[in-house]
Amino acid sequence: MSPPKEQIILGIDPGTTIMGYGVIRVVGKQQELLEMGALHLSKYKDHAVKLKRIFDRVVALIETHHPDHLAVEAPFFGKNVQSMLKLGRAQGVALAAALSRDVPIAEYAPRRVKQSITGSGAASKEQVAAMVARTLKIPEASMPKELDATDGVAVALCHAFQLATPRMQTGHSGWKAFIADNPDRVR
Fold first, then answer.
1. Per residue in 59-114, pLDDT tens?
2. Tens of pLDDT, residues 118-154
3. Which three-class secondary structure state does DSSP give residue 113?
4. Which of 102, 103, 122, 132 has the most CB atoms lying inside 10 A of its own CB?
5. How many Å apart are CA 181 and CA 55, to the nearest integer?
6. Domain ranges within the chain, ordered by starting residue
7. How many whole angstroms separate alpha carbon 50 and alpha carbon 116?
8. Please, are residues 21 and 11 in contact by the beta-carbon 8 Å criterion?
9. Distance between CA atoms of 40 and 82, rounded to whole angstroms?
10. Does the active-site annotation cover 56?
11. CB under 8 Å to 65, separation ≥6 — which residues?
12. In 130-150, which positions are buried (b, 16+ CB within 10 angstroms) versus exposed (e)?
């Protein structure tokens, strides 16, 4: 039996004030934190400059860690249309950075990330951070102040958990997965 393949996953929690990110290495069922942090953007008043900083940081993370996947949290639908538009642009720039380096992309809804990490889609950022620390055995003293950083790691972990499921390995989901799992029930 061959040893499990190593996967590097870059997780992004997009934002135009703070962008959280985390890079993990996965070998078999073991996950290891390589880097986490937050890009602070509030000092830039020009929205275009913020987008360029996001692009540059994501490219730098890709060039440093050579991820096999980029996982990004999808914007949630709030009441403020302008905020949603800005968040969508931030996510789009992170995706463009990954695409420019041929890194495959996965997108997850915030509730799905929380559910995957804590077991509850309504978990708080603090609960997510606590489970990230527990899962990756990060000492409390090493945890960042910014919960956006742990949110970025949570997105990467969510993707790692999805990759570990047999359905993701076969590329089947939804009805395709049902048919693949139950060929005798399809006429």
1. 999 999 999 999 999 977 667 788 888 889 999 999 999 999 999 999 999 999 99
2. 999 999 999 999 999 999 999 988 999 889 999 999 9
3. helix
4. 132
5. 40
6. 6-185
7. 30
8. yes
9. 20
10. no
11. 8, 10, 23, 34, 35
12. bbbbebbebeeeebbebbbbb
Q: Which of 13, 126, 181, 184 is catalytic?
A: 13
Query: At residue 80, what are phi and psi to the nearest 5 degrees?
Result: -90, 105
| Calpha distance 149→132 (Å, rounded) | 10
Bridge partners (DSSP) of residue 6 are 27
Annotated active-site residue 32? The verdict is no
Q: Would residue 184 show up in a list of annotated catalytic residues for this protein?
A: no
Among 68, 140, 148, 181, the active-site one is 148
Catalytic residue from among 32, 56, 68, 73: 73
Cα(62)–Cα(111) distance, integer angstroms: 26
The dihedral of CA 35, 39, 9, 84: what is its sign? positive
Query: Tokens for 162?
Result: 């999805």
Q: Which two tokens stand for residue 75?
A: 């914007």
What burial letters (b/e) apply to 46-66, b meaning 16+ CB within 10 Å?
A: eeeebbebbbebbbebbeebe
Q: Which is nearest to 29 in space by CA: 123, 182, 160?
A: 160
Nearest partner of 90 among 75, 107, 106, 101, judged by Cα: 75
